[in-house]
Amino acid sequence: MDEKRPVTVIRPKSGWFDLPIKELFRYKDLILLFVKRDFVSLYKQTILGPAWAVIQPFLTTIVFSLVFGRIAGLAAEGVPTFIFYLSGNVVWHYFSNCLTQTSNTFIANSNILGKVYFPRLVMPVSTVISKLIDFAIQFSFMLIFVVYYWATNAGVHPNWFVLMTPVLLLQLAMLSLGCGVIISAATTKYRDLRMLVTFGVQLWMYGTPIAYDMFSMGVFAPGSKYYGLYMCNPVTPIVNIFRYGWLGIGQIDWFYYGVGWMVTLVILFLGVVLFSRVEKTFMDTV
Amino acid sequence: MNTMIEINDVYKQYRLGAIGGTTLRAEIQSKVAKLRGLEDPNSKLDAKQVGANKRFYAIDGVSFHVSPGEAVGIIGHNGAGKSTLLKLISRVTAPTKGEIRLHGRVASMLEVGTGFHPELTGRENVYLNGAILGMSKSEISKKFDEIVEFAEMGQFIDTPVKRYSSGMFVKLAFSVAAHLDSEIMIMDEVLAVGDAKFQKKCLDKMDDEANSAGRTILYVSHNMNTIQRLCSRVIVLEKGKLVYDGDTPGGVGKYLSVNRSDAINRDLRGIERHRMCKMRVKMLDAWLIDKQNNIYLQDDEVRFAVHWKTNADVRDLTMNVFVRHVSAATVGFSSVAFGTVPKNEEFQTQCVLSLKDIIPGSYTICIQFHEIDASGNALFDDSIDQLFEIEVMENREKIISYQGNIDNTMKMNWNYNEYGSVRLLMDVVENRKV
Q1: Calpha distance A37→A30 (Å, rounded)
Q2: What structural domains and CATH numbers belong to chain B?
Q3: What are the backbone dihedrals phi and psi of residue B66, each rounded to the nearest 5 degrees, phi first?
Q4: ipTM surpassing 0.95, yes or no?
Q5: Is A21 exposed, middle or buried (0-12, 13-18, 19+ CB in 10 A)?
Q6: CA distance B212 to chain A (A)
Q7: Helix (H, G, I), strand (E, B) or coil at B295
Q8: Distance (Å, rounded) from C-alpha B237 to C-alpha B251?
Q9: With an 8 Å Cβ cutoff, is A286 touching chain B?
Q10: pLDDT digits (tens, 9 = 90+) for A249-280
Q11: How far B134 CA sits from the closest chain A CA (Å)?
């Protein structure tokens, strides 16, 4: 019977490829409980509860519609300005929320992490999952408008590419997890990066067709000088496919979508490697 | 060999000074300064004195093995490395060198209620905390009623824990950890919580786990009574090194004897006193009479002298003599009244203290001077807490002479916790068969 007992060996940090994927799976209950905790505790003692998940992107969308749509005239032609911005915001909200929160993992949870062991990756993974709930609420909100505009013939044409949505989400989750985890590994020592995250995410948004329509922008449209560079941002093809599927606007560039996946996988891999390298001793430096 | 925990030559190194929480800019500054051969602009003043490399070992080459079902106490003074060792074993941080092998699941309680979220209810927190500690959902469900019952929660289980009293909070948290199905349990002074009744319950539970359920327990505490109750073996750490590994009484003795002095002549002029002391009377010197060391046999008398001086006119002056066991429990007390003493007089007082009834062990002698003020309150004038630290050795001849009689307690080890430090004298006046 003694032979069957699992043996845990604790050694100084050594290899780079010491990935705790199997262990992560063993702690799936913990991931789910963290998701539940995040969700329940966020909306406890609020009157509107989960409705808050909708209000934030809703207000942003209104502001974008006014500033970028009406005043600057950057929205896409052919569809209502509101749905154009709402669709972009829903996608971007999920991505940026995941990114900012996972990048804060070690610092925000150092009290738990300093006292008990579990695979550290549990925390960012559960963050990414719990943000899915917010996404689902916002997405349903968006659906109402899509159906409304589709029924009223306002130029919205959902097509079979909506079936890509889960794949797009998965890629977004992986990308934000990878980026967030890289930043969180770096912030255990240098808190400066934490300040940069909010700013960086905002910059990134302007590098992604959220606030404007890239196909009507001279510099970014297909065939223009900066198109290739612009499309290397893995979020851009995702937003494009999402809008193409649900609204029927823009176009899909499969080549850059593939590039996006490559970038995503590389970032995620780098992130997880870096993270598991740091997790063993981060308590000494955080 | 059947072992549960193997710790093989483990080191944990920390860098001194502020490294965590520096900024990238500061780090670059330091690097640049180093390249140009200048002094690091970010090094702290006190860090410089520690040494050039600014590293120290919190755990310095510790090795030991623990068998299943053993309850091992880890003791040592603050900073000896106890908590660091537990952190290494519970995988919160990794060792710098060496290897630890754990043959089983570990439940570590370095803190009570880790991960409890104030907004969640007791029930939700039990599940969350259990999962953090490594249990699966179904395991927790199986144990849930037991946990709630042990924590004496009942009706409060569906209330958010932020409404709990701190006692309830701690009870629930301990209960979750105590019901983990793990082979190894690691606890850092967590039992110092809850009321006396609950503490006893916790100890009983742990005792039970170690003895009947065969769980291995590592327990860190400063409370020697709990250590003596719970642990069959003790490891003493000192400055990161293992200095003792063996039975409990020996380990406790080792721990308590660190920092003890064997002075027989004490100059008390320069010693800082408690701020309560009015110093209207001051002890200047004290010494043990006709002794070369501080070791006494059980039948001996401690003869000591105190040299003291009055700085003011004092009324109702009294000298108190306390004999304390090394665990700080007072064993006996005696006092002498000097009455009214005028200002600026010096005295040498010689005393003889009988040790006849005190069992062998380490003791301290403490002396206080106090007076009674006009309203009848005691005013402390001077007090020295550890004036003499003496070792009382057992007198072999005495034991042999007892053996012929009815007394068997002297033959076995005197259980300090059970019997106390004073052996009361009793004569059997009749022992008649009825």
Answers
A1: 10
A2: 5-257 (3.40.50.300), 267-393 (2.70.50.60)
A3: -125, 135
A4: no
A5: exposed
A6: 17
A7: strand
A8: 10
A9: yes
A10: 888 889 999 999 999 999 999 998 888 878 77
A11: 7
